[in-house]
Amino acid sequence: MIRLSYFRLLFLGVCISLLYSCTSQPNNSSKQESVGSTDSLSGKTTTALSDTPAAPIVSTLSTAISCTREMLPDDSMNYMAGGAGAYRPTQPNPIPAVLPAAAGMVYIPGGEFSMGIPDPTRVKGGGKEAMPDARPIHRVKLKAFLMDEHEVTNAEFAAFVKATGYVTLAEKKPTREEFPDALPEMLVAGSVVFTPPNHEVRLDDHLQWWSYVKAADWRHPEGPSSSNKGKEQNPVVHIAWEDAAAYAKWAGKRLPTEAEWEFAARGGLTGNIYAWGNQLQPGGKKMANIFQGHFPERNSAEDGYPTTSPVKKFPANGYGLYDMAGNVWEWCADWYRNDYYTSRASDKAWTDPTGPADSFDPDEPGVPKKVQRGGSFLCTDQYCTRYMVGTRGKADWRTATNHAGFRCVKDIN
Ligand SMILES: [Ca+2]
Ligand SMILES: [Ca+2]
Asked: Which of 109, 171, 197, 239 has its CA 20 to 30 A from that of 318?
């Protein structure tokens, strides 16, 4: 990225005239020490009081930050013209002197923040989708909670299966009752796998790179001849929503609401495009496992990972959360409706929202969908820029794929 001082000075001049509410305040939040007696493989946790006093959560972000910081002048103006002026400062709740904690989880203070994203097509690298489902930007207020610092791994999920004998949806043979029109050969256990063509294709038909693969499941992420051995620290994949919810319940946790997920992903910042700021690769540094090359046929994997990466290989955000952009999509508790944010159009702060009562996606009416967030190793500005922090994803809640997993949250009693 070009980061010439001349442009930065010019950008500052532009922003002084543009910014009114699109700013953050000095952050007074705090970072916890990891304490507790949780077995990191089992995922089971017990909330315990840390005897470690609170320290800054966002220690490097204590100076004033605008939602257009580090943008070039055109991007800054276009971001504001796209609606970024609706952002108001993230205001975290007061931080207790002694933080509740559980091993492998981080304290998210909750508070008020502005949720959603301006039209990203206006900014460099913003992709081709205007994403109206993520507007209007609206105000949300949340209680504090704990969140897994990383996506649930294969090792953690294996411990769950070992303890419970749980069988995922992908491992079960689909029934004639559920799919009355399916051909007999299609009624086999399996899951959806990214199977890229060997040549350039139009991007208007995702079936050109997605296939239903017999016997693909969390132990066999690319199909029966593949294995997750050696990938114990990679996020588990081929997880339907009910599988994620079952794991969360066993672990004494739950899936995050969409609002909790976004608050956590923003890491204390206000209105930034990414979980870490406004440059996809600040100083040339890869910040997330996404897709490089030419989608879908040529994955150059310049970030080191053509598929999933072990968790925590890329920098954490301001709250100490890893892979909130990319690696695998993460299931949220909420149903997906494309018009849900429209119902939030108000100056009031919506308190602890849990999403709409039902699901509707005009792209596939009649298919119940849950929210997924954060994008995956397949996201690129050529096709899907949903590693941008305010964007929304969705998926059939009974479909598993090899680029979707989850992480959990836990209430603070
Ligand atoms: Ca990658
Ligand atoms: Ca992720």
From this structure: 239
CA distance 31 to 225: 43
* DSSP three-state, residue 184: helix
DSSP states of 350-372: EES----SS-B-TTSTT--EEEE
Interacting residues of 160 by C-beta distance below 8 A, sequence separation 6+: 42, 43, 166, 247, 250, 251
**Which residues have a beta carbon within 5 Å of ligand 1, which is an ion?**
289, 303, 305, 377
The residue range of the domain holding 186 is 2-411
pLDDT tier at 23, thresholds 50, 70, 90? low
Q: Is it the case that residue 179 has pLDDT exceeding 50?
A: yes
Which whole number is the average pLDDT over 170-186? Answer: 89
Phi and psi at 288, nearest 5°, equal -160, 155
Report whether pLDDT(33) > 70.
Answer: no
Counting ligands in written order, which one lies closest to the CA of residue 329? 2
pLDDT at 46: 31
Distance 258 CA to ligand 2 centre (A): 13
Domain count within the chain: 1
C-alpha 373 to ligand 2 mean position (Å): 7
What pTM did the predictor assign? 0.86
CATH number reported for the structural domain that contains residue 22 in this entry: 3.90.1580.10
Distance 304 CA to ligand 1 centre (A): 6
For residue 377, give both structure tokens.
């190793």
Pick the ligand that lies closest to the CA of residue 307. Answer: 1
User: What is the SS3 assignment for 157?
Assistant: helix
Measured in Å, residue 142 CA sits from the centre of ligand 1 at 32
Paired with 335 in beta bridges are 370
Query: Can you tell me the distance from the alpha carbon of 322 to that of 222, in angstroms, rounded to the nearest whole number?
Result: 24
Residue 379 Cα to ligand 1 middle (Å): 9
16: pLDDT strictly greater than 50: no
What is the sign of the dihedral through the CA atoms of 373, 379, 381 and 384?
negative
Find the 328 Cα to ligand 1 centroid distance in Å: 11
Dihedral, 381, 385, 387, 388 alpha carbons, nearest 10 = 110
